[in-house]
Design brief:
Number of strands: 27
Strand order of the largest sheet: 9-10-11-4-3-12-13-17-18
Radius of gyration: 26 Å
Strand content: 15-25%
Distance between the termini: 48 Å
Helix content: 40-55%
Shape: globular
């Protein structure tokens, strides 16, 4: 098929992009700019990536943190944690200086059957069961195209409230932020990522979120909430840099915006936090409609000048799309003043490897070299994840039959007590159907067995768990293969066979794969198979109880930008057994407070470890099996070393406000643009 050439002549006749402009393969050429406005737009990505635009002088931080998720009101993963915990930690530390971070997020309402949120006009109850009193701040009207490609001004109500010392600004619009599911909603989509009853998918939802933020900025210039720096949390607000940098220039070229307003919006620095780069917000079918919604009558002018910095990827020549498809993250990757990712090692991976950086690898390499791209390991409030009286009392109350004890690095004998309590608990779940249905009704279990009398010495029995989401990223298939290999090798061992607890919410096919592991082990060793517990679903109390007892936490991840699970596990003395990828490298000190593979492979070549070891191990499965072997051998043969490692893990502190910790790094970045 011949390539159509999209150029200024084709777009000259319309202010909007034609609805099917991207339906054929094409390349984009850029005309010599004839106005200073066009020249500025064409050079903007280059100047931003190279850090040529000076960071403004900021005396007192008044930041907005834009996030589709918050752990407080709508959580799906780690990006929701940072959206709640970073502002809370910042405000605790710096509010007395008159500095603050305010969270800006959608006001979701509806019921997905897993997540439910509602608002009575005064009190908002989020999907995480937290309440907040809200006051109406203003109404804004957000221009956005409907399904008939008519530009409609959608009324969006703005509310404000305070929770955990942090101000929250909520954007309320039932068309876009309702979470009642559409009949065609994919089964894997839930919460804020659902296709809702109005047919709004996640990409359109968050494109509207970005546009609404832009309109809110214009409306709040005269209010004391107006920010002097913006933190955009992942791809959901990835269109914002284009709206804040490009659109005011385009409007100025037509005398459609006050110059003072344009300058105030353009001058706000934007920090984009990138979590997993595999999630970018693609929408091929609605490419034209979303772009026309964002830039309105200026779309064609912006598009034909939205030139990327020169790079070797022919798919990233225009900042608004990747090849021929709308990409929500693209603008921020090209145009944000700074890009942050959530660990130093993940920064190295995404700026070197196509398998991690995808279409933006070259852009991120340029940014890294010019100090507009940094890695900061996510923090985690340690008091929330360490064993404590309040939490463990609530766990015991929830289960009704347990006597889990509080422990710390100096009372590890209580952790051994908790191992015995957990064996009793899981055996009761196996044998008492009514108890199971009352306590964890939404968790499906596979052939749980009573092992309470089978284990003769709990102190000599390792408990190994994996309770992350059942998704390909987490490497459950690698875990299963490693367990099978270990059991085959040690079938006639003198050691007490480990107890394995594997499962979580997510892909049902991965759950079925884990059930097959138990079946296969049963053909080798029925006693070993009885100690494999496989489940599908999630309950916080159940997951917490598992970590209270577990000696090891399996993390054979194919990628892990930061990882919070290993931090949670280490705080409870559960040593991670992990792949050497992403933030797992930055947070786990191998053979000191956990176990990591000696090498890591991506796309059939090793990206971590030395060449000799890589040639010996050859792939991630072999490397991980060896690491599991090392961990269990340490448990059986070197108990003193294991105890020392558990103490080291529990002593580790990933809290935001540690000395030279993530909060200090963000504070420096917000003020100076540098680390």
């Amino acid at each position: 098929m011949s390539k159509a050439r999209i150029n200024s002549d084709l777009l000259q006749s319309t202010t909007f992009l034609p609805s099917k402009f991207n339906k054929k393969k094409f390349t984009i050429t850029y005309s010599v700019p004839t106005t200073p406005f066009a020249l500025e737009i064409q050079n903007l990505a280059k100047n931003q990536c190279l850090g040529k635009n000076a960071w403004p002088k900021i005396n007192k931080i008044k930041a907005w943190m834009l996030s589709a998720e918050t752990a407080t009101f709508m959580k799906a993963g780690g990006l929701g944690m940072i959206a709640s915990e970073l502002p809370e930690a910042f405000n605790r530390q710096y509010s007395n200086n008159g500095e603050s971070i305010c969270v800006v997020t959608p006001l979701y309402t509806g019921d997905t059957k897993k997540k439910k949120a509602f608002f009575d006009g005064k009190i908002y109850t989020g999907a995480e069961h937290k309440n907040i009193n809200l006051n109406k701040l203003m109404d804004i009207f957000v221009p956005f195209m409907d399904e008939k490609e008519t530009l409609v001004r959608y009324k969006t109500e703005i509310f404000i409230g305070v929770c955990e010392n942090t101000s929250y600004i909520f954007l309320a619009n039932d068309r876009f932020f309702n979470i009642d599911p559409h009949k065609n909603n994919p089964s894997t989509q839930d919460g804020c990522y659902i296709m809702n009853k109005n047919g709004i998918n996640e990409v359109e939802r968050f494109a509207f979120f970005s546009k609404a933020i832009y309109e809110l900025l214009k409306a709040s210039i005269q209010h004391d909430i107006f920010p002097n720096v913006i933190i955009a949390n992942d791809w959901h607000s990835g269109a914002l840099s284009g709206l804040m940098k490009y659109l005011p220039i385009a409007l100025l070229s037509k005398n459609l915006i006050n110059e003072d307003t344009a300058d105030k919006i353009r001058s706000i620095p934007i920090i984009h936090i990138a979590h997993h780069l595999g999630y970018q917000g693609w929408d091929y079918e609605n490419t034209a409609r979303i772009l026309n919604s964002l830039y309105e009558e200026q779309t064609a002018f912006v598009f034909k000048n939205a030139k990327s910095i020169k790079n070797s990827n022919s798919r990233t020549t225009n900042t608004l799309i990747v090849h021929d498809c709308y990409n929500q993250a693209s603008c921020n990757f090209h145009l944000a003043d700074r890009i942050i990712t959530v660990s130093k090692n993940y920064l190295e991976e995404v700026s070197k490897e196509l398998g991690f950086g995808y279409d933006f690898r070259d852009i991120l390499k340029i940014r890294k070299d010019h100090r507009t791209f940094y890695g900061i390991v996510n923090g985690y409030d340690k008091k929330l994840i360490s064993p404590n009286v309040e939490k463990i009392s609530s766990i015991n109350s929830f289960f009704g039959t347990t006597d889990f004890k509080v422990f710390d690095r100096d009372t590890l004998e209580n952790k051994r007590h908790n191992k015995a309590e957990f064996v009793k608990l899981i055996s009761k779940i196996a044998t008492d159907k009514n108890y199971k249905e009352n306590i964890i009704p939404l968790i499906d279990t596979y052939q749980f067995e009573d092992i309470s009398t089978d284990i003769k010495n709990i102190e000599k029995t390792p408990i190994v768990c994996a309770t992350s989401r059942l998704v390909e990223q987490k490497g459950y298939d690698v875990a299963a293969q490693s367990i099978l290999s270990w059991i085959k090798k040690h079938n006639d061992s003198k050691y007490e066979m480990p107890v394995f607890i594997l499962g979580g919410a997510g892909n049902i096919e991965l759950f079925k794969m884990l059930t097959k592991l138990k079946d296969r082990v049963a053909k080798i060793n029925k006693s070993a198979a009885s100690r494999i517990f496989v489940f599908h679903g999630y309950k916080d109390q159940f997951a917490y109880a598992i970590q209270l007892a577990a000696d090891f936490y399996m993390m054979p991840c194919r990628f892990e930008p930061c990882g919070l699970t290993q931090m949670e596990a280490m705080a409870k003395g559960s040593l991670p057994i992990a792949m050497s990828t992403g933030g797992l490298v930055d947070t786990i000190n191998n053979q000191v407070d956990g176990f990591r593979t000696d090498v890591f492979f991506s796309e059939n070549r090793h990206v971590y470890g030395n060449n000799t070891t890589a040639r010996r191990l050859q792939n991630n499965e072999t490397a991980y099996t060896e690491t599991l072997e090392n961990a269990l051998q340490t448990f059986y043969e070197l108990p003193n070393l294991l105890s020392a490692m558990q103490k080291n893990a529990m002593q580790k502190d990933f809290s935001w406000n540690t000395i030279n910790g993530p909060l200090n790094k963000y504070y420096s970045l917000l003020h100076t643009g540098l680390l």
